[in-house]
Design goal:
Helix content: 25-40%
CATH architecture of the largest domain: 2-Layer Sandwich
Number of helices: 11
Number of domains: 3
Oligomer: single chain
């Protein structure tokens, strides 16, 4: 931990990399020494510097709550998502998101009077907000933007269309409310697979009628077609077969029927034949309860007194069976 230069005063930073690895990392990020914003390192942080910095960080939650109350009282349409205090506790940087331009001059005056600090307002996007706050995604893992993702590329609905995903905003949106960054991770693989793939809106001309494409499996190279007048029966064709039929149609020729080219698929591969398996029988929730007595069991008579039972046991002849050793 070191004390580093700031706009005014000093801040506390943590050294995470030294030596030649710094040059390797800068080259990887495409940053040169001249372009980098280099801050001067004053000294190693003393215990006093660390104590002041930790005390300032402990005040951030309280300051953030109070700042939100001030913004609400001024009726400003903005969200203060994070607060960061400088290492010497002389300046506070407020990160906020807003749909439009905000006039926060009165807000700065009120916050400077309430906190006795220099105030800096910094507007960030919704992706940067999710990066700062962090969280758990729908995949069950920590957000990519808050762990390893450093650049935010534009994500469009075309990425979902190429991957044949349902355009459901609730499933495609991340914690930031925008399209998930992971939609771009496999997009290049899909685009490479689609280079020699027939269009999804292909129409095949046959003697039995026009056939329309209903479903596409990019990585298996399969397309499913149905006739216009018979939409219940699907016919699976390989992409090479579809390309061959399209070439014949361009020349003005028609094939006899799709059945001549249709592939035979297993039940798991054919979307028309869904396999329904019986679910395993669950154990009964009452399996540990006391079992019920059988109705055919002979009813016992009234219990005899304890003295009578002891007398009968004494008069009983000894058993002739040999005892086990």
């Amino acid at each position: 931990m070191v004390a580093v230069q700031a706009a005014s005063g000093h801040d506390v930073g943590i050294v995470t990399l030294t030596g030649e690895l710094v040059k390797v990392q800068m080259k990887r990020k495409g940053v040169t020494a001249e372009e980098a914003q280099q801050l001067k390192v004053y000294r190693k942080a003393t215990q006093k510097d660390i104590d002041i910095w930790q005390e300032a960080r402990s005040r951030e939650a309280e300051i953030q709550k109070k700042a939100r109350e001030i913004a609400i009282s001024l009726k400003l349409e903005m969200k203060i998502s994070d607060v960061e205090l400088q290492g010497d506790a002389s300046k506070a940087t407020f990160y906020y998101t807003a749909e439009s331009r905000i006039d926060f001059r009165q807000l700065i005056k009120d916050m400077a009077r309430a906190f006795n600090l220099r105030i800096e307002m910094r507007q960030i996007g919704y992706r940067q907000e999710a990066q700062r706050l962090g969280g758990i995604g729908s995949c069950g893992r920590e957000l990519c933007c808050s762990t390893w993702l450093s650049d935010f590329r534009a994500v469009s609905t075309a990425s979902a269309r190429y991957q044949q995903l349902a355009l459901n905003p609730q499933k495609l949106a991340g914690q930031c409310g925008k399209l998930k960054c992971c939609l771009n991770f496999e997009l290049d693989t899909y685009l490479d697979a689609l280079k020699d793939f027939p269009p999804a809106d292909s129409r095949l001309q046959t003697e039995k009628g026009t056939a329309f494409c209903q479903k596409v499996d990019i990585f298996k190279g399969l397309l499913w077609f149905t006739y216009k007048n018979d939409a219940t029966h699907w016919h699976a064709l390989h992409k090479d077969q579809v390309t061959e039929i399209l070439e014949l149609n361009k020349k003005g020729k028609k094939i006899d029927a799709l059945e001549d080219y249709s592939l035979t698929l297993t039940s798991g591969e054919d979307p028309e034949k869904e396999s329904f398996e019986l679910a395993p029988v669950e154990d009964s929730l009452t399996r540990f309860d006391r079992p019920k007595r059988s109705k055919n069991r002979r009813k016992k008579g009234p219990r005899r007194p304890q003295e009578q039972q002891s007398k009968d046991r004494a008069q009983r002849p000894p058993s002739s069976k040999p005892k086990r050793s």
